[in-house]
Structure formats: C-alpha cells, structure tokens
Amino acid sequence: IQSRLPNVGSTIFSVMSALAVQHKAVNLGQGFPDFGCDPHLLELVTEAMQQGHNQYPPMAGVPVLRQTIAQKVARLYGHQYDPETEITVTAGATQGIMCAIQCSVHPGDEVIVIEPAYDCYLPAIQLAGGIPITVSMEINEQGFSVNWAKLAAKITPKTRLIIINSPNNPTGSVLQRSDLNALADILREPHNAHVLLLSDEVYEHMVYDGAQHVSVSAHPELAKRAFVISSFGKTFHVTGWKVGYVTAPAALMTEFKKVHQFTVFTVNTPMQYGLAAYLQNTAPYENLSDFYQAKRDYFRAGLSQSRFKLLPAQGTYFQCVDYSAISDLPELAFAEWLTKEIGVAAIPVSAFYRSGMESGLVRFCFAKQEQTLALALEKLVRI
Ligand code: PMP
Ligand code: GLN
C-alpha cells in the first residue's frame, strides 16, 4: 500500500533496546525504570479486579479517577478542571497526544514543534495532514532554552497548534514561569487568537534542585487554550500500563473525546480504580523528585570521572552528554559503538530532530537501580 508515513521506521527506542539485548549491554537508552512499582499499587489494582471492576468504564474514564485527577491538579496548580467535561483518561500520554492533534489540526494547518522533540509529535501531525514547523532550542553553558522571539516569528495565520514539553525529553531542560509568560505575551496578540497549545508534562514530578514544575494548568491565560498531557507510567514506575490523562477546557475536550471514543473508546478499568485509590496518598509523587535527584546525582558524580561532558539536567530522568572528547563519530554511529563495544546503550539526540541535526550528544536514562548505574559507569569511565 501507499504509506501514509513513508519516512517512519521503528522508533529509535525500540531499535536501541533491541541492540542492547543483542549485545547484552546495560540499557540506558529507552526511558523506563528497571525496578518495580510500589507493591501497594499492585494490591490496589488486584483488589479492583477482584471486586469486579472488569467491564468497560465510561468513555472518558472512571469517575473516581477523573475526580481524583481534578483534585490533584487543583491542589498542585490551582486550576479547577471539571471532571465531567474537562478530563479524559488515555492509554498513556501517547494516545492523548495523538488524539489532541487529530482533533485540532486540519489538513494544511501548521504546528510549531520545538526541537529536539519527542518522537511521537511529528507523525501525529503528518497523519492529521498538518505541516510541522520546527524551531530549534538554543544551547549554551546553561543548557538548552527556547528563544521565544524566534518561535513567535514562525507563527502565521495557518498556525493551529504549538507543542511544548517541560520537563523536556531529551534535554532535561525545564521551562520557567518567565518562559510561560513570554509565550502568553505572544499568544495574547489578537492576530494569534487562533493558536492552541499542547503541553506535554509527563515528567511533571521530576524536577531537581528545589525547582518547581511550572504547569500550563497553573497559567490561566494559557490553560484556556491548552491540552495538558500527563502519564501515570512515568510517575509510578509502570510505563507498561499505558495510562495517562489529558485536561483541557470543555470546548477543546468535547472535540478530543470525539476522537478518543473512536480510537480506544476507553482505557482499562481495574488500573483506573487502582490508580484512583493510590492517588489518595500524595507522597509517592511528591517524593519523586527527591528519589530521582539522588539517582541523577549519583550518575553525574560517576560520569564526572569520565571523558563525557555533562549537560545540565534539571528535570526528567535523562542526562545528555557531549562525547566530542571521545569520538567524532555521528551520534547514531557513536550510540551503536557504545552499545556494541562498550556495553552501554544510549540514544542519539539527532533522533529528536526532523533534519537529524548532529550536536555531538547522546542521552542516557538514569531511571535505574544503583547497581545498574554502577555497572554502566564502570564501563563509561574506562573509555
Ligand atoms: N511524552 C514524552 C516527552 C515522553 O517521554 C513519553 C514517554 N517516553 C511520552 C510522551 C509517552 O508517554 P506514555 O508512555 O504514557 O505514552
Ligand atoms: N519515552 C521513552 C523515551 O524517551 C520511550 C517510550 C517509547 O519507547 N516509545 O525513551
């Protein structure tokens, strides 16, 4: 058949994970924890199944989970979403992102994507018939940042959506309140009234050095025109469960639900009940930044003994490094060499650029047990 996504192959995450398995390398490539979740969460999900919560839930998700999400968002970010009309539980963030794009982007619409960008945005835009317009982040000693004037210059009458992602995969950079204010200043212009926002906040609970996650939900002016995306997979160490959620004003959510209901109709019931009960305790997500900061610090301390140059890592469970002191191979070739010859898998940052732009960087995932990180570090410091 004639492909609708002719330039798409397997994702870099699948490719590098397979290579890691093949070469028995320590897999710091694909982002997922190598440790289990809280056993209490497993009990709560099991109880939900035993109590008979095994049939279709309502299309937007079980009411108690939507209410719990509304309370969580209101408590953390001060925005009250209506659980009936403004929250949908999704099959991971990926499905939320796909449906948000399909419901809002018409053929020929332009969508602004800030690069490096997570890999699911561009194919979703392409399937909608949209035209991705990319803006590169700038990089200096402080790490990656968005130049908002550069982004503003890309807005045209055809711009339908701007996608932002903070904490950012792969760079680990986080947007500040001043960034959201700069974006709000741009979108407040009457000639930009047609522009919507998609804010991918799946790493909202992984922000380091005392910084706070600045959610679009906490910015009333931006929240009015935004789909905000989150994922329980990231927050509770259960990436394979694929449960996330989307919040948006009712007018946007009405359109979102039209696509959601014919994409998956709804998401598995027992996990939703289990998660709703588990969310009653705020500690697991409130302590997550400390938990991952300890891993980040351990990994960075180890890498500081190597020839890799560390970039700042303010959020997410990713650490980008500059390998120019070690090799002048292109990023993919270097990541493959690292996997095969050194025994540590990484992800080339070029995979997050449509053009495949090279910056001499690879990304490591530090959501691993200390013994895994220690094993990887032992190999990395010897190069
Ligand atoms: N957005 C970003 C930035 C991600 O890193 C990921 C997961 N790697 C997702 C979305 C998708 O999340 P989920 O697994 O919940 O679909
Ligand atoms: N989001 C994860 C990462 O960035 C991978 C998820 C996936 O494999 N699609 O590594």
Structure description:
The structure is a single chain. The protein is of the alpha/beta class and 383 residues long. The protein folds into two domains: 12-30 and 287-380, Aspartate Aminotransferase, domain 1 (Alpha-Beta Complex), CATH 3.90.1150; 40-284, Aspartate Aminotransferase, domain 2, CATH 3.40.640. Helix content is 39%, strand content 16%. It has helices spanning 12-22, 39-50, 63-77, 92-104, 121-127, 148-152, 177-188, 220-223, 232-235, 250-261, 269-278, 283-286, 288-303, 331-342, 370-380; strands at residues 26-27, 87-90, 110-115, 131-136, 138-140, 143-145, 159-165, 196-200, 226-231, 244-247, 309-310, 318-322, 344-345, 347-348, 361-365. The strands form four sheets. The chain has a seven-stranded mixed sheet, with helices on both faces. Strand 7, helix 7 and strand 8 (196-200) form a beta-alpha-beta unit. Helix 2 (39-50) packs across helix 11 (269-278), helix 4 (92-104) packs parallel to helix 5 (121-127) and helix 4 crosses helix 10. The radius of gyration is 20 Å and the shape is globular. The relative contact order is 0.18. The mean pLDDT is 98. The site of 4'-deoxy-4'-aminopyridoxal-5'-phosphate has 14 residues, from helix 4.
Q: Number of DSSP strands?
A: 15
Number of DSSP helices? 15
Query: How many structurally independent domains?
Result: 2
Which range best describes the helical content: under 10%, 10-25%, 25-40%, 40-55%, 55-70% or over 70%?
25-40%
Spans where pLDDT lies below 50 across 5 or more residues: none
CATH H-level superfamily of the largest domain: Type I PLP-dependent aspartate aminotransferase-like (Major domain)
Indicate the proportion of strand residues. 15-25%
InterPro entries: Aminotransferase_I/II_large, Kynurenine-oxoglutarate_AT, PyrdxlP-dep_Trfase, PyrdxlP-dep_Trfase_major, PyrdxlP-dep_Trfase_small
Family: Belongs to the class-I pyridoxal-phosphate-dependent aminotransferase family.
Protein name: Pyridoxal phosphate-dependent aminotransferase
Keywords: Aminotransferase, Pyridoxal phosphate, Transferase
